[in-house]
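Run log, item B.
One chain of 317 residues. Sequence copied directly from the ordering sheet:
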Amino acid sequence: MATTAEPISPSNTKLGWIGTGVMGSSMCSHLLKAGYTVTVFTRTQSKAQSLLSMGAHWVDSPRSVAAQSDFVFSIVGYPSDVRHVILDPTTGALSGLRPGGVLVDMTTSDPSLAAEIHAAANSAGCFSVDAPVSGGDRGARSASLSIFTGGEQSVVTRLTPLFDLLGRVYYMGGPGKGQFCKLGNQVTIASTMVGLCEGLIFAHKAGLDLSSYLNAISTGAAGSKSLDLYGARILDRDFEAGFYVNHFVKDLGICLRECQNMGLALPGLALAQQLYLSLKAHGEGDLGTQALVLALERLNNISLDPTKSDSKVEKEV
């Protein structure tokens, strides 16, 4: 391992990676391309095949990952998964990490769990940083993610050479503050996605050409990252997940619980969560967040699909 005074580099640092889903696989690939030795774990080995073909080494538990690594990154689905892969006393990463090692959880999770992991790591002579990301699958592929970090600033600074391979890092404060920043990010995105989809529904009903409409508003005050990432996908009926509805519902649920703890009323957040829940109820939880338009189409008994007229939708319903 690099000493605290020695910059991190492929020659002195071994990395571990837990979770190779839509985001994790692309993120880990950047570390491999930079020349780092990376040990990976995922519940289904075949899902790590692309990384293994790039030179990564697969092991059968998070503990085994940590035993061979100086820094262990994780990006999994739910807080329960985070707790299992990091804190499980038998198979968790912390149980295999050497003193001085660093855990970096990039999952969107509970701020309280981030603080718990930080305390457990400190007790074991290790370090922990919460570092959830924003930017979706495209940001992961292009290494242009926003990375929100919480923990000791000196540890985050030390990690910067690695974070720079994934995107741009922002230090938000102590343990859990990275998670709080990501939750605020999700609150903002939730209402932005509702606005994007409602605008499309309105423009369609008004008889506008939707491609021209999106092009027109994208350069004005209505322009947004969500519009840039998802506007064309919605028109193309491309609902493949860059970020799963199921995971967004999880994130918004965490936001609402934190709001309750803070005594906050955020009605836009609550409305968005209900609309996304309706997608889950229709079996659409594995679609991307841009599938929100489907809920609004059903609500208004219309379709933006150019192969369907609104009259056909009415007959189908």
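Observations after the first pass:
- The mean pLDDT is 94.
- The two ends are 62 Å apart (CA to CA).
Flagged for discussion on Thursday.
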